[in-house]
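[Discussion] Sanity-checking designs against the backbone

I'm trying to build intuition for which residues belong where. Below is a structure token string of 314 positions. I'd appreciate it if someone posts a full sequence so I can compare it with mine line by line.
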């Protein structure tokens, strides 16, 4: 399972340059950490983070190189905060901040952040027949009501502070990859018919999880029903060991003694809004089945209002 699959039906090829927010204490990283889990509305913490970002130099971020889009991308994801569609798993609140690394790390209002990832057993929506490796029940055995073409995919539009927030579940894994979330940052487009159209992709990348946290999560139900050899960060074909600047999330447990209660994850993405990226970065990620769907989601795809929250299993 190697290679960099391209969905030839994709009409929007946008791009970005991302950062992990690794700057000196007192700069953007500290401000971002202090406000990491504030709501996406204009809070005082967000305002403080914005002020700190604006006051730093234009070199306050190290731009990340693009990495592979991977084999499981689908065009036309829905604009929504909750992308779970009832998929079982440990809850994950993901807070990402988009800043302009070419202009003093000022917030990029209106940037569209798109994420997609596998479910607890390693299956992606749209590719539910692709074997995740090891031993796992069939995706159909989950018994949930999720739409097989849209679950665990979505966009959010950055607020005035460059912040987006997603409600999802902790991803599972598939061979030969470590646990990860795919991400694209788009600018210059607009919300249309429930998705995001136009503009360019400024960055194509992946978000990663510390091994000790991931491995603890995978001992819980439903993750534990997928057995086999899990790929650690050091052995992953995409993660290059650069920490936050390579997409490693800052994670905070909702309840320190009970990981099933969920995690909050955060990262700062430092983009060049004028740059375009094709998503043709290095690394593989597996090959999807030949009968995988392409194009936009079906017309009956669930919206935010129809997406129940994820359940935590212990």
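Best answer:
Here's mine. Compare freely.
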């Amino acid at each position: 399972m190697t290679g960099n699959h391209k969905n030839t039906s994709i009409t929007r090829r946008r791009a970005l340059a991302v950062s992990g927010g690794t700057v000196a204490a007192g700069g953007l990283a500290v401000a971002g950490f202090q406000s990491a889990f504030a709501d996406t509305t204009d809070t005082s913490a967000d305002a403080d983070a914005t002020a700190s970002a604006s006051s730093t130099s234009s070199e306050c971020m190290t731009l990340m190189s693009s990495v592979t889009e991977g084999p499981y991308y689908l065009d036309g994801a829905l604009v929504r905060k909750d992308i779970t569609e009832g998929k079982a798993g440990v809850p994950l609140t993901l807070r990402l901040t988009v800043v302009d690394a070419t202009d003093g790390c000022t917030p990029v209002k209106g940037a569209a952040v798109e994420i997609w990832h596998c479910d607890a057993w390693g299956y992606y929506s749209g590719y539910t027949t692709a074997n995740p490796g090891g031993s796992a029940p069939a995706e159909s055995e989950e018994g949930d009501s999720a739409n097989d073409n849209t679950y665990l995919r979505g966009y959010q539009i950055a607020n005035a502070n460059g912040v987006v927030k997603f409600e999802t579940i902790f991803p599972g894994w598939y061979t030969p990859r470590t646990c990860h979330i795919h991400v694209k940052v788009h600018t210059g487009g607009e919300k249309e018919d429930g998705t995001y159209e136009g503009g360019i992709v400024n960055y194509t990348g992946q978000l990663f999880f510390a091994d000790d946290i991931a491995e603890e999560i995978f001992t819980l139900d439903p993750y534990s029903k997928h057995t086999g050899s899990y790929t650690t960060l050091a052995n992953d074909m995409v993660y290059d060991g650069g920490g936050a600047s390579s997409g490693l999330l800052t994670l905070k447990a909702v309840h320190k003694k009970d990981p099933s209660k969920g995690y909050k994850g955060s990262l700062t993405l430092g983009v060049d809004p004028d740059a375009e990226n094709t998503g043709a970065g290095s690394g593989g990620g597996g090959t999807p089945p030949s009968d995988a769907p392409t194009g936009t989601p079906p017309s009956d795809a669930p919206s935010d209002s129809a997406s129940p929250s994820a359940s935590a299993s212990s």
